[in-house]
Design brief:
Belongs to the ABC transporter superfamily. By secondary structure, the protein is α/β, with parallel strands linked by helices. The protein has two domains: about 130 residues, P-loop containing nucleotide triphosphate hydrolases (Rossmann fold); about 60 residues. It is built from seven helices and six strands. Strands 2-3-4-1-5-6 form a six-stranded mixed β-sheet, with helices on both faces.
Length: about 200
């Protein structure tokens, strides 16, 4: 899927990942987070990096939402009560927050995963299509909290919403055929991606 990628993202730069479905965008986020090991080579990072925040939340299915959030707080060394309060308010899950994670829909999993990540300070947030989840009000809230975090952190973001990438990202990278092309300007990356899509 990905073949011989070699790139560097400057510190403080937010990067938009573009490519057709199956190009390896989500796989790359998993590799960057350390959740998946590359077959060869290495990933070198500075600062703290979130897990890939999106549809595949990797919380324990038999634990409740609140138990999962407390566990994450302990792993990352943050105040568990503060994180629980933030995620409970942000996710709007109500009583479901106290139910087993395995009972959650994919949208509910995304809400709690995104809320948990936004409740912890990371130098870089890995974001996978998460602001596509929920009704219009929740999407607005998600975009607002992400903008707030990006005022002091960077992101590597996957989204099919080009306006969202333009609003959140400085640079872009287009994945195609297992290879990557880096662009210093997100608009140039979007133009290349749209040209690639039009050719197929």
């Amino acid at each position: 899927m990905l073949d011989g990628l070699d790139f560097e993202v400057p510190a403080g730069v937010s990067l938009g990942l573009l490519g057709r479905n199956g190009a390896g965008k989500s796989t790359l986020l998993s590799i960057l987070s350390g959740a998946v090991k590359p077959d060869a080579g290495e990933v070198r990072t500075e600062g703290t990096i979130s897990w890939p925040v999106g549809l595949r939340a990797a919380f324990h299915k038999d634990m409740t939402g609140v138990q999962n959030v407390r566990f994450v707080a302990r792993v990352y060394g943050v105040d568990s009560d503060e994180l629980v309060e933030f995620v409970h308010d942000f996710s709007e899950l109500g009583d479901h927050f106290y139910m087993p994670f395995k009972t959650y829909s994919s949208g509910m999993r995304s809400r709690i995963s995104f809320g948990t990540a936004m409740g912890i300070h990371f130098d870089t947030y890995l974001v996978d299509e998460v602001t596509a989840v929920g009704d219009a009000s929740f999407k607005r809230k998600s975009r607002a909290v992400l903008r707030d975090r990006l005022a002091r952190s960077s992101a590597i973001m996957v989204s099919h919403n080009m306006d969202e990438l333009r609003a959140s990202c400085d640079a872009g990278m287009v994945l195609a055929g297992g290879r990557a092309r880096y662009f210093d300007d997100i608009d140039d990356a979007i133009e290349q991606h749209e040209w690639d899509m039009a050719r197929s």
